[in-house]
UniProtKB/TrEMBL annotation:
Residues 5-174 form the Bacterial bifunctional deaminase-reductase C-terminal domain. This is Deaminase reductase. Pfam families: RibD_C (PF01872). It comes from the Bacteria. It comes from Paractinoplanes deccanensis. The lineage of its organism: Bacteria, Bacillati, Actinomycetota, Actinomycetes, Micromonosporales.
Length: 206
């Protein structure tokens, strides 16, 4: 069985909507599309490339797939060659035509389809695809949660945890990486069980 990575750029208030450009996702009248662009950092690009080592499949929601399919087939760089070579699995409630080579539409039983895909690959990455991410979090169908957290608070927009998640424990898989723009990379691994509770009140012996 392979590993499913969820890779996201988020703000401090965990908004992950449309980091790349203003037209990326305007749902809900989101006014901050492209919020990541004014904060470039070489360390982010280096860490993103390192995180893709061993990737042998992409799992994408329909919106992210459409954005990627319009861009990456025309790019002859490290990421473009990787994305164009590996299989792409697409979650959609419709029946879109998928023109990007190597693309497969997942069936209506999404959890079962994702588990089948995970059995075929060593390292599947989910990039963006917030609606799909909500399903994966609810089903505990992920192994790594990789977050670039940026020093911004937007106060509006789609969030990583949009509701409906099941309680889960996570462990820090690698030491955090800090970029010169103030962003921090946190890589978490899904752990067994659910969060425990306790009592931190101090008992004073009289």
């Amino acid at each position: 069985m392979g590993t499913i990575h969820i890779d996201l750029f988020t703000t401090l208030d965990l908004v992950a909507q449309a980091p790349g450009h203003p037209e990326e996702d305007t749902e809900g009248g989101f006014p901050f599309g492209g919020w990541q662009a004014p904060l470039p950092a070489e360390e982010v690009g280096q860490a993103v490339l390192k995180g893709m080592e061993g990737m042998d499949a992409l799992l994408l929601g329909r919106k992210t797939y459409d954005i990627f399919a319009a861009y990456w087939p025309h790019q002859d760089d490290v990421i473009g060659r990787l994305f164009n070579r590996i299989p792409k699995y697409v979650a959609s409630r419709g029946t879109p035509a998928l023109g990007w080579a190597g693309s497969t539409l997942l069936g209506p039983d999404l959890p079962s389809e994702v588990r089948t895909a995970r059995d075929k690959h060593e390292s599947i990455h989910v990039i963006g695809s917030l609606d799909l991410v909500q399903t994966l979090l609810h089903e505990r169908l992920f192994d790594r949660l990789n977050l670039w957290v940026y020093p911004l608070v937007l106060g509006t927009g789609k969030k990583l945890f949009g509701g409906g998640e099941v309680p889960a424990n996570l462990t820090l898989a690698e030491p955090p990486v800090t970029a010169s723009n103030g962003a921090v990379l946190l890589r978490y691994a899904l752990a067994d069980g659910i969060p425990a509770t306790g009592d931190m009140r101090v008992t004073v012996n009289e």
